[in-house]
Amino acid sequence: MPRKSWLGMALIGAALALAPIVVGASLGNAWVRVLDFAALYIMLALGLNIVVGFAGLLDLGYIAFYAVGAYLYALLASPHFGIHWPAWAILPLGAAVAGLFGVLLGAPTLRLRGDYLAIVTLGFGEIIRIFLNNLNTPINITNGPKGIARIDPISVFGQPLSKPVEFLGITFSGVMLYYYLFVVLALGIVFVGIRLQDSRIGRAWVAIREDEIAAKACGINTRNVKLLAFAMGATFGGVSGGLFAGFQEFVSPESFGLMESVMVLCMVVLGGMGHIPGVVLGGLMLTVLPEAFRHGAGPMQQAMFGKVLLDPEALRMLLFGLALIAVMLYRPAGLWPEPRHRRELAK
Amino acid sequence: MAALLDVLNLEVRYGGIAAVKGISFAVEQGEMVCLIGANGAGKTTTLKALARMLPSKGEMRYRGDRLDRLPGHAPISRGLALVPEGRGVFSRLTVAENLAMGAYHRPRHESGEVAADLDRIHELLPRLKERRSQLAGTLSGGEQQMLAIGRALMGRPQLLLLDEPSMGLAPLMVQKVFEVVRAVAAQGVTILLVEQNAKLALEVCSRGYVMESGDITLADKADVLAADPRVRAAYLGE
Predict the structure, then answer these.
(1) Pairing mode, if any, of strands B32-37 and B207-212?
(2) Would an 8 Å CB–CB cutoff place B18 in contact with chain A?
(3) pLDDT value of position A347
(4) How far is B38 from B33, CA to CA, in rounded Å?
(5) Nearest residue of B to residue A199, measured between CA atoms
(6) What element of type H or E holds A326?
(7) Are A29 and A230 in contact, with CB atoms under 8 Å apart?
(8) Distance (Å, rounded) from C-alpha A18 to C-alpha A40?
(9) Cβ atoms within 10 A of the Cβ of A115, count?
(10) Is A345 within 8 Å of chain B by CB?
(11) Are strands B207-212 and A159-160 parallel, antiparallel or unpaired?
(12) Least crowded by CB within 10 Å, which of A190, B84, B194, B214?
């Protein structure tokens, strides 16, 4: 690797390491928490990017895998069943179970594409959520709509990340510690994503996205390769779900609605489908900007009109919709698309 | 000796509708054979069934081995390549990447031979070399057809199934595409060609089959078919 890119990576690393300290000191821990969520959503978006961006399979139920990972963690590390497994055992298990669910979703939908696939996956996402909502009778598995509380925090080397740590004279709060864990894992997922993209499998996914019959005629086992896309994407979702459960220490079906699936899909599409840096940007923007808006819209209206005219929450969705329309009109390939994709659309 | 490709009572149904109604035909090694017929006669369906893109009934043998039980990704590694209808290039991949996908099934240790094949294809289709870093979707229709043929050749097939290579092309381009097809045949590749352009197909091929609503109604040498009054009336516009 040339020296320049080493330097660039060192700078990015330093920026990532210092971000929570600077943000925590200037804006408060609530904003570090937003960064934590940004990292989680980036992992989710990168997982969905495999399915939607690489393999071209429109999945509207992606959040179900996040839910599977989160509930698995919740059930295996909380007083609900009295089981307290360590996170490092549950997270890989969650990835595997979510991957299995990915195959379960993929197998019956192998022949579907586009709109039809979207409808079926949407249904799948809802099925999972409704199951979570109702699996409290006859045997209480998921605790229904009340959700599962008092989940064990994630521990690293015996240190629960929810407790602050003092290091080099700086107090690292729980949200900061989670930040570092999430960023390291997100970087890992970015790395895996990049390696996958340039691999034989990555090429096979793209070929299927472009033309399934031609891909098959080239000798690609389209069935297995599509199932692999679903499984891989789901695996990333499962890991992020487990992290979410440990971080929040609480899960309920409410967190896994259709809106969440749509949000993650927006991150992928807005950022630049199939382009990893774009998807990271999309994930970051769609987590941070709405939060900034939530905090900023009320006081701004106070200052301008002397009272709050529009509920910031409603205004947020309105502006979000407008932003989506604007991006699709002016940057149809996303904010940061793959360079070659942009070339083609510009024609 | 058995033919390179032997088809016996091939039947393909789309739900309740029989698109191909139990046809039988054969292609010998080194031959160039065409299937001609009107829209909806079942030509493309036949080709898709041969490439295992559609489930079918009846027996298909390739070099004496049963073809009809293979999954769709298997024929290419046995030397049977399909150039699909509508070309099916990977439009958001470059020309070079498209060609590389054609060799997807070939093992890593063959990489030297793959490179040699690429050189030969570049020689046969110089436009592809010029445009190798261009996205396939930005090529003209004729160039895309050339690319689709080139991609299929990268799999080093012995039998090439060509589905309507003239579709949607200007007459001059059609001539060029057929020149390429001839050149490929001259390299010893057996070709089964599906065409609506019966005149041209019968010119380049040695034998032909005429399909009508799922059945083969005529089978003969190409020049005999081209002279047949029924063919002339139905397909050659006389």
Answers:
(1) parallel
(2) no
(3) 40
(4) 17
(5) B104
(6) helix A312-330
(7) no
(8) 18
(9) 9
(10) no
(11) unpaired
(12) A190
Give the C-alpha separation, B173 to B26, whole Å.
30
CB A215 within 8 A of CB A204: yes
pLDDT, mean of residues B6-28: 94
CA distance to A175, A177, A241, per residue, from A150 (Å): 17, 19, 16
Domain count, chain A: 1
Helix axes A29-48, A63-76, angle to 10 degrees: 120
| Nearest alpha-carbon partner for A57 in A256, A274, A214, A259 | A274
CATH number of this structure's domain B5-90+155-235: 3.40.50.300
Mean of the pLDDT values across residues B193-197? 92
Instruction: Give the C-alpha separation, A121 to A106, whole Å.
Output: 9
Q: What residue type is assigned to position B129 of the chain?
A: K
Cβ of B93 within 8 Å of Cβ of A206? The answer is yes
- Rounded CA gap, B238 and B231, in Å? 9
- What pLDDT score does A346 carry? 46
A74 forms beta bridges with: none
On whether residue A342 sits in a domain, the answer given is: no
* Token pair 């549950």: residue: A90
The residues that bridge with B21 in the sheet, in sequence order, are: B11
> Would you state the torsion angle of the CA atoms of residues A223, B86, B125, B47, taken in this order, to the nearest 10 degrees?
70
Residue of A nearest to B102 (CA): A218
Using a CB-CB distance cutoff of 8 angstroms, which residues of chain B are in contact with residue A218?
76, 101-102, 104-105, 151, 155
Q: Which domain holds residue A26?
A: 17-258
Q: Which two tokens stand for residue B32?
A: 């160039």
Residue A161, φ and ψ in degrees, nearest 5: -70, -10
The predicted pLDDT at position A213 comes to: 94
Task: Report how many Cβ contacts below 8 Å link chain A to chain B.
Answer: 82
C-alpha distances in angstroms, B26 versus A285, B36, B182?
Answer: 61, 15, 20
Closest CA to B6 of B80, B73, B105: B80
A199 touches chain B (CB under 8 A): no
Give the distance from CA B33 to its chain's centroid: 10
Q: Are B83 and B163 in contact (CB under 8 A)?
A: yes
Helix or strand holding residue A128 (H, E): helix A114-134
Tell me what pLDDT residue B149 has. 96
pTM of the model: 0.90
pLDDT of residue A214: 95
Q: Which two tokens stand for residue B162?
A: 């060509």
B184's tokens: 């490929």
Q: Is A220 part of the contact surface with chain B (CB cutoff 8 Å)?
A: yes
Is A243 within the bounds of a domain? yes
Do residues A171 and B55 touch, judged by C-beta distance below 8 A?
no
Which amino acid makes up residue A147? G
Measure the CA–CA gap between B225 and B210, rounded to whole angstroms. Answer: 9
